[in-house]
Amino acid sequence: MEKVNSIIAAVLKITIEKAAGDHIMKDIPTWDSLKHMELIVAIESEFGIEISGDDIAEMLSFDAIRQTVAKYAKEKS
Amino acid sequence: MTQNFNYNLGQKFQQISDIQKERIALKFTNGEKCTYADINDLSNKIASFLLDLGIVRNDVIAILNNKSKISYSIMLACLKIGAIYTNLDPKSPIERFNKMIDLCAPKILFYYNDAESNAVTKEYNFTSVKGIEYGRNNFLQSISKYSNLLPDYNNIVTGNTPAYIMFTSGSTGFPKGVVITHANIINFIEWSKITYNTTCNDVFTNINPMHFDNSVFDFYASLFAGATLIPAGEELIRNPRKLLDTINPLGPTIWFSVPSMLVYVLNMRALKANDLPTLRIVTFGGEGFPKNQLRLLWSIWGHRITFINVYGPTECTCICSSYRVTDDDMKNDALLPLGPIAPNFYALIAGSNGEIINNGEIGELCIGGPNVGLGYYNNHEKSDEVFVNHPLITSHIEKIYKSGDLVRFDNNKKLLYFCGRKDNQIKRMGYRIELEEIEAALNSLSYINESAVIYLNTEIVQEKIIACICSKELDEFKITSDLRRMITIYMLPDKYVFYKHLPKNQNGKIDKLALKEECNL
After folding, report:
1. CATH homologous superfamily of domain A2-76?
2. Which of A22, B111, B226, B489 is the most exposed place for a label (fewest CB within 10 A)?
3. Within an 8 Å CB–CB cutoff, is residue B428 touching chain A?
4. H-helix segments, B53-181
5. Is the minimum CB–CB distance between B483 and chain A shorter than 8 Å?
6. If you ran DSSP here, which 8-state letter would residue B151 be given?
7. Which B residues 40-79 touch A at CB under 8 Å?
8. Closest-CA residue in chain A for B243?
């Protein structure tokens, strides 16, 4: 999950330590819709996955993002 | 039979409410509803309360607007007594917020009690402005003693009384406050009724934040046509699937947003073909709609929903042209036309020397007509730069607005096409950003010697604000955190590029073209 944390940190301009914690979208001022799109695109491109609309709708916290990526990575393998 | 002469918006709203007291004005996403009589009575009470506090015509009232029954009623109350309301962004960094307050010197700042509003109000020093928290029961108690009738004072509110101030980015680092009058808006309302064929059965979305110019359409095109408005809060908008699930049963018929919002909905794979079955018009403006994404939306909705692209600067009351999208528009990659200029407007296209162009060449769009605002609040210098006399009329004064937008007019199709900007203004999520405002913020940081901000939207680098800086501080988190005190989040650079010296051109100025080439890798 370090890769996911790095993507979160780079896109939202926060430290890697913060990205490794659990925060919801509302808590991170730089996490607006533009950055949210960037985040999803970067994750999909890095892991070679395409996340469904229903799953994207749940990706509103760092933990939820990591869980979703883990689910897709498992399905892929 | 006598007919009412509604020369101000307070009278106009009173008349609409008198006719359809029990019809629904606001449908909230939590299921609550509010009739025209409800908000009309409430706004009249607040109007009398404001008069009692000594507020008079032309006084400014600032609002941190949470899209509640009370906050809309405060706007209406201001209109009824000729006070000028300004909806401020509760997420503004405190330094920017202070600049806006200093500029418009409001007599009252209405705020509400939640984390978003508190973010700015807890840092704000209420010494020069009276703060009123409107979200609490004691506010409703304090106005309950007032009459629910339109105050007589309303008679002195004329068509040329300012109605609102809308803040937008300023190139000197200071936001500019555009002043729009009652008469400007009355013309806008009449245009919108005809263009959208609005009836009292229509239901508009209010997705746009109230401090953003597009909300002018949401508020005035709906409530001043006797239609219904669905206020949508920011948290809901962040999650487009939830937004659609929530507003589906409320039966929206007209959706207005920036294209970025629709792109967000599409990219989040949130839109299903059967979403919003009652919708008859989707209208968008504030920026160009990328064609690939537009085609995708058209393929889902185009067969049953009318698409209208609109254009207009904040300085000309939100919208001044519209274009109905057709199948043919999907066959090319060009941006949609801006449309013909709206009735009761005129457009001049000026060449680089100020000469009027009639031959289809590219020039600056200058707009004239009754939607042209009064200028920038407390900023004569900037106002005089862009609100200028019509160059061909010397017998009397007729103001036109120089938009800075480069356009061409196709004489055969009678349509305007957007071709770029004359200056360094960009759009992000529809918000206007003067890149100089970001540079001014960077240059105010003690550790930055020199800066230049560029915007790249190429095949290689998409929609990125890049700060090229000579800085003693190399920690991007620290720089971003310092900038956040001064500029809003959507203005923050996406990337920093560190230089020992910025390249200069032959005139000794920073060579932005060279920087763009270097960064486009």
Report:
1. ACP-like (1.10.1200.10)
2. A22
3. yes
4. 69-81, 94-104, 115-121, 137-143
5. no
6. P
7. none
8. A57
